[in-house]
């Protein structure tokens, strides 16, 4: 095997899924520097005042679903929308550099742009790979990779046009809110060759769009404070996404409640006291809010607000990642995003952090809980603030956080159920935070050496959490919560949420290699697709993934059929060249697919999301994407 193109061998499949959420509402106040050509309305172009009577406002956000890149940093140059008339409006005021691997469990609001009224039928996204920093995992280590196009040429810039499904045309009216979700999906066409140094990543960006939001993730809204309206329970910021230190991305209101927790300049508050502390900090204070978007009201409400020196990278350096080992006051963090005060954020796979008695410790969801460094244990997802003391360009990075702070975030586990008893689930862990369990050293986590956490039988306290009927021994599951304090296991972990097999979305991936296949299906019908498994090679993609579990479709007796979901939202798409066509109706999609596979064109990759019915041998798909290369 020369390529990691998705084998069923226990190695990590290199895949990336990155949705973009665009929420459009009636506008007023500041816009995000949008630009337009064609029939833009007065007041919706740069340099002219914008009012709710003249335009809408686009809230653009970015995120990343669970994938296998350790770090994937690129520059998003442009994200434009196109009217039926051909007029184009830009939603980003400038380039935005981001690491998609940081956004597995987070969505980032990145722009608030003025948009002229009208019907939008398409969009175009441009990504610059010229200064990309990509790291993939090989034998447990993060190795650098270069990006190339499908022809093997170094990838500098990628531009892709998205044509919306006919009944999903985005209609923006004056004062009438609208909503659009765009998914940037590289899973079907992203392959990695680990043999060369650096590794080589073949990239064929795949993007689809919907008029309704899909993922219910925590959203981050970041930027300097403009003003606080304590009586109204809100404040406004000048949006400045990712870890940018300047730029005008638009003004955004943030709602708060009596349950909102705050950390302002290293001090914890909640409710009205926290909002007063934010107001006292004054205009220009850095903020980062985490919360949820009410899609019907188009309102963002913060569950947690960081401000001033509590925002990573503002007054002190910061490191974000998962603790893989601890010895005394020294912790080692894996897969770290380093956010220095004096330069752009960057990636280091391992960082050694020193903590001490004066290190402040906070936990998400517990603003005033008395914590100390003893609560920092192996597996814990952390953000540490302190001073970077060394950087040799590799594993030489160290941080002194003895006078700083560590924030504990919800940690994500995945594995196979060993046993379920009242108040406890035991897992055979596969990953923590998406990284393989073999990288974690659990020495010292227990009350004694014989009580250290055992990843093969990891004890998760579930308390009164409702557990699904599909949470059975041998099935896949995920848990979200916090590891026990260092030296206090068992139990090893306190769960806030447990997701059983029935709640895990299945992913189907089929690849026909660089040459593709002219006849990849034995059936292309109005209600089913049947892949021809006889033409699939051992070194090609042919698996279903359900959480940490993989099923080789070549092992399914009688083969597999792909059928449309009968409930919920569905979206089917075909990419040819630099164009993606979207379909809401399966029969319409199948008809277009049959026309695209004209005997000369070839299918190169398929990916689908949905549910696997093993008894029927059916993959019930809510989303399907196909990459088709036109014949010569």
Give a short overview.
The chain is mainly β.
Can you describe this structure?
The protein is mainly beta and 632 residues long. It folds into 5 domains: 17-210, no CATH class; 219-307, Beta Barrel (OB fold (Dihydrolipoamide Acetyltransferase, E2P)); 317-409, OB fold (Dihydrolipoamide Acetyltransferase, E2P) (Beta Barrel); 411-503, OB fold (Dihydrolipoamide Acetyltransferase, E2P); 506-629, no CATH class. The protein is built from 2 helices and 44 strands. The strands form 5 sheets. The chain has an 18-stranded mixed sheet that branches. Strands 1, 3, 7, 12, 15, 16, 17, 18, 19, 20, 21 and 22 form a 12-stranded mixed sheet that branches. Strands 23-24-25-28-27 form a 5-stranded mixed beta barrel. It is globular, with a radius of gyration of 24 Å. It starts with 16 loop residues before the first strand and ends with a strand. Mean pLDDT is 83; it is low at 1-31 and 46-50.
């Amino acid at each position: 095997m020369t390529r990691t193109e998705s084998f069923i061998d226990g190695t990590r499949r290199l895949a990336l899924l990155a949705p973009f959420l665009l929420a459009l509402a009636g506008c007023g106040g500041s816009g995000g520097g949008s630009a337009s050509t064609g029939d833009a309305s007065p007041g919706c172009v740069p340099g002219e005042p914008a009012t709710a009577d003249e335009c809408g406002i686009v809230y653009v956000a970015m995120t990343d679903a669970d994938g296998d890149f350790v770090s994937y940093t690129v520059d998003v140059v442009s994200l434009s929308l196109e009217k039926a008339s051909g007029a184009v409006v830009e939603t980003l005021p400038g380039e935005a550099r981001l690491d998609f691997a940081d956004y597995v469990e987070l969505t980032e609001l990145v722009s608030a742009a003025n948009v002229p009224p009208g019907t939008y039928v398409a969009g175009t996204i441009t990504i610059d790979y010229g200064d990309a920093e990509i790291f993939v995992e090989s034998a447990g280590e993060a190795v650098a990779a270069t990006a190339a196009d499908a022809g093997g040429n170094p990838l500098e810039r990628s531009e892709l046009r998205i044509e919306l499904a006919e009944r999903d045309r985005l209609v923006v009216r004056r004062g009438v809110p609208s909503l659009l979700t765009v998914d940037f999906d590289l899973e079907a066409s992203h392959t990695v060759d680990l043999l060369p140094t650096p590794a080589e990543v073949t990239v064929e960006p795949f993007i689809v769009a919907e008029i309704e939001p899909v993922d219910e993730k925590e959203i981050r809204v970041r930027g300097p404070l403009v003003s606080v309206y304590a009586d109204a329970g809100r404040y406004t910021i000048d949006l400045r996404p990712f870890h940018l230190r300047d730029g005008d991305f638009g003004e955004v209101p943030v709602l708060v409640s009596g349950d909102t927790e705050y950390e302002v300049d290293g001090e914890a508050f909640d409710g009205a006291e926290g909002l007063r502390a934010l107001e006292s900090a004054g205009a220009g204070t850095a903020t980062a809010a985490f919360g949820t978007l009410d899609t019907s009201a188009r309102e963002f409400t913060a569950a947690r607000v960081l401000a001033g020196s509590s925002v990573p990278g503002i007054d002190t350096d910061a490191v974000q990642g998962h603790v893989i080992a601890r010895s005394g006051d020294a912790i080692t963090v894996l897969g770290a995003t380093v956010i220095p005060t004096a330069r752009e954020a960057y990636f280091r796979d391992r960082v050694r952090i020193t903590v001490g008695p004066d290190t402040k410790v906070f936990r998400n969801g517990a603003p005033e809980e008395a914590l100390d460094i003893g609560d920092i244990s192996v597996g814990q997802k952390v953000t540490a603030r302190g001073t970077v003391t060394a950087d040799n360009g590799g594993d030489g990075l160290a941080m002194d956080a003895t006078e700083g702070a560590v924030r504990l975030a919800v940690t994500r586990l995945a594995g196979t159920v060993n046993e379920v008893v009242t108040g406890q689930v035991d897992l055979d862990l596969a990953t923590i935070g998406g990284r393989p369990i073999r990288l974690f050293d659990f020495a010292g986590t227990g009350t004694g050496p014989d009580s250290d956490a055992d990843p093969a039988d990891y004890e998760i306290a579930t308390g009164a959490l409702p557990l699904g009927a599909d949470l059975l021994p041998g099935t896949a599951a995920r848990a979200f919560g916090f590891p026990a304090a260092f030296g206090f296991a068992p139990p090893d972990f306190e769960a806030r949420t447990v997701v059983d097999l029935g709640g895990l979305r299945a992913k189907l991936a089929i690849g026909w290699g660089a040459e593709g296949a002219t006849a990849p299906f034995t059936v292309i019908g109005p209600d089913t697709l049947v892949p021809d498994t006889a033409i699939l090679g051992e070194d090609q993609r042919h698996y279903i993934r359900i959480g940490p579990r993989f099923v080789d479709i070549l092992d399914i007796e009688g083969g597999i059929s792909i059928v449309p979901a009968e409930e919920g939202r569905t979206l089917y798409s075909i990419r040819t060249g630099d164009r993606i066509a979207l379909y809401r109706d399966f029969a319409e999609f199948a008809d277009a697919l049959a026309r695209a596979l004209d005997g000369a064109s070839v299918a190169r990759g398929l990916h689908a999301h949905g549910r696997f019915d093993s008894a029927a041998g059916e993959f019930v798909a809510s989303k399907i994407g196909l990459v088709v290369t036109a014949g010569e």
